[in-house]
């Protein structure tokens, strides 16, 4: 079984929310790394006219809600392979909050331009970031503003560059030849990956694993927020430049830091209820339409595009 990346929250913390903050510490180096090594222009961005690009800038300046697609891939380079981990993140700066939902890599759905239903992670292999963004947008019925992709090597390398992470383990277990006693631990990159991957010994299964992932994410957010005192600043830059691709350029990251960083203090993970089924000899994850609509509506509400929320806001304005 292929390894699963647990780097999405890492990227939110370092790239989307706090990473640009350390531009004031190594401004020129950060700008060069982001714009030369990490930034990639998507077809959808390339097709925008000047008015649309200006509207995009105004959204950040006006602190409007934004959405991100965060991807972990199973290849040596972030531009290749299948998307083994897929997470949608919405950020609402008005109430300083973030919502995250993971989409299983074996989720069965329709990929734009393909005749038959397929696994969602194949969309990245078929058409890269543009196609998987289109696929997720169609499935959840929400717009996606930006994507961030990291490869398998990035998880350990980024954590090591940060100097490790702190976790509080609720029960003792062994994973990948590491033994984690109950209590607080300081973990390096390899240990953190093992800690995040464990599922079989957890009585809560995936729910328990998700909890450990969030511990690591939160620890990395706190470490990333202290980047001005980071002793291995260039090492972190190298790790990000070698392992991350995004359509966020340096200027947009800087605006995210200025206008959205406080949202990291209020994070909520939405759980998607799923079923398993073998179809034509392959295992798929299936989601009932009612469940898909529930998650879609929660994300729309957080992005201020829900019909219900828009109607409530209009009523409030009329009553003022």
UniProtKB/TrEMBL annotation:
The keyword Endoplasmic reticulum does not apply. Coiled coil: none annotated. It comes from the Bacteria. Pfam families: LytR_cpsA_psr. GO terms for biological process: cell wall organization. Residues 83-223 form the Cell envelope-related transcriptional attenuator domain. Keywords: Membrane, Signal-anchor, Transmembrane, Transmembrane helix. Belongs to the LytR/CpsA/Psr (LCP) family. PANTHER family: POLYISOPRENYL-TEICHOIC ACID--PEPTIDOGLYCAN TEICHOIC ACID TRANSFERASE TAGU (PTHR33392). This is LCP family protein. It comes from Alkalicoccus halolimnae.
